[in-house]
Amino acid sequence: MTLEDIKSPFDGAVIGQVPVASLKDVDGYLSRAEVGAKLWRNTPAHVRSAIILKAATIAEENIEELAQIISGETGKSIVEARAEASRCGEIFRLSSFEGSQLYGSTLPLDANKGTGLDKLGFTLRQPVGIVVAISPFNYPGLLVLHKIGPALAVGNAVVLKPARTTPLTAFAIAKYLKEAGLPDGVLQVITGSGSVLGDALVSDPRVRKVSFTGSTVTGTHIASIAGAKKLSLELGSSCPVIVMDDADIEYAADAVALGGYINAGQVCISVQRVIVHEKVMANFLDALKPRVEAIKVGDPKSADTKVGTLISEAEAIRVEKSIATAVSEGATLLTGGARTGAIVMPAIVCGVNPKSAFAQDELFGPAIAVSSTTGITDAISIANDSPYGLGAGVFTKNMDNSIQAARELDAGSIHINWTPLWRADLMPYGGLKSSGIGKEGVRSTVNEMTEEKTIILHGRSW
């Protein structure tokens, strides 16, 4: 295979090389995965668990190495990269535990009319076999581990296709697993063209499960060609946050200044739409603007940088143009929006039409769209007027508002008095509508990565 340079989006420096696979290589990866799947399925759960726990220890011993790799290939700040690297060991540990706890249930067959006590029924879970995991660029450690950790823990073989721009983190994680004793063929990392390799991998009948995180367009394409297999699709979003007139404005401004700009807004659960009650709009913007302007942007390796680059200059140009288009359509740029290379200054865009592309389309950049509302029912209607439904947040001191929002907002995760940019690795995570199919979160992923069989033992009456 030929080698491809991986470059820093901040300064273009080459930080590593990876082999580039072609279509003809796919069969070899899947053939090795077939062998690995058979071996790993027949490995006792306590042995699998011990290997994954050892990988957790190795990852925790190499947090700084992993953080430098993450920051280098994504352009995110080293502070954020260290936070991501420090969670990797914990996901290994959660996976090790949950993957060893594949409980079934007994079936009360004698409750079936005409059935006596001569039959016993129960359910049994087993690994699906071969899993294809396709991960995005924005969290190359965490979002890889949320797929491969549970998949490996329950006994599957995995072919991992990381984002082409950020494969080095995936190779580092695979190295830790290899050092921990993971057998050959159980985890393979394949790099190269997503459209070429991805189509071949997800459509192959030997693959029993596809786990994909990325755009709704690509996820829909995968669903159309995958065939009869299990799918988990974590797709696009345009997450809303509602700020009611009884909210703690300073607290809400603090939260939005974090939730809209971490990782340069390149997070599926970033705050994109802020729907503010008209009575407190001026106070909210007065509180938010200085907080956003105080965000230190620049060299990702600098200890005081809070927000680094977008993944590429092309993406930064796209975000810059989206902001300019919103302004040309009547919105107001309150602050930010200037671009230098792959860096876009954190932006607040006010007076945004909730039906405009700037509010409706996933931005994936460091800018928020602020619109006004007259009350909780109107705010929920605006929030739900989106093809997406991944996460939402509501700031209010009113219990009635909180319960109405919990009942009526169409989102996979709803945060009362915080933004959607909060996630515990153990909780279910996934969206409604065009935001995807299935759930991640380690325990949920264990279920997604296994299949359930019903067993009936037929005895003779005595």
TrEMBL record:
Aldehyde dehydrogenase domain residues: 6-455
Recorded GO MF terms: lactaldehyde dehydrogenase (NAD+) activity
Stored InterPro entries: Ald_DH/histidinol_DH, Ald_DH_C, Ald_DH_N, Aldehyde_DH_dom, ALDH-related_metabolic_enz
Keyword Magnesium: no
Coiled-coil ranges per UniProt: none
Keyword vocabulary terms for this entry: Oxidoreductase
PANTHER family recorded: ALDEHYDE DEHYDROGENASE (PTHR42991)
Family that this chain belongs to: Belongs to the aldehyde dehydrogenase family.
Official protein name in the record: Unannotated protein
Organism for this UniProt entry: freshwater metagenome
